[in-house]
Amino acid sequence: MNANVMLDDVDASGALTKAHLADLLFDQLGVSKREAKDMVDAYFDLISQSLVKGEEVKLSGFGNFQIRAKAPRPGRNPRTGELIPIEARRVVTFHASSKLKEQIQG
Questions:
Q1: Which of 11, 16, 29, 81 is most solvent-facing, going by the fewest CB within 10 Å?
Q2: Do the bridges between strand 83-86 and strand 73-76 make them parallel or antiparallel, or are there none, so unpaired?
């Protein structure tokens, strides 16, 4: 798939959506719109399930998604200044590949 095509297929907010990805699959691979939507949904479901299990997701030439455990810490309500405990949680982090970073720098 040509990355330049994708740049032309964003919505009014400038975002590339799952619907646009499905349209690209429909246009470029000739699968039905329903199959294209199912393929995109399955792809993101697989990524989500892997992250929920704590597995790292590596996309060559794009970057890595990882789950990071954050420890509990004290927080503060910015409006009142009241101390509020922030519970331990897991967050997703993304680290762009050097190839993607170079492309962004142009």
A1: 81
A2: antiparallel
Please, what's the largest Cα pairwise distance for the chain? 58
CA distances from 13 to 10, 16, 44, 98 (A): 8, 9, 21, 27
Using CA atoms, how far residue 91 sits from 9, 85, 88, in Å, is 30, 17, 10
Residue-wise pLDDT tens digits, 78-101 = 999 999 999 999 999 999 999 999
| pTM score | 0.75
**Which secondary-structure segment (H or E) carries 18?**
helix 18-29
User: In the structure encoding, which two tokens stand for residue 53, read together?
Assistant: 């299990």
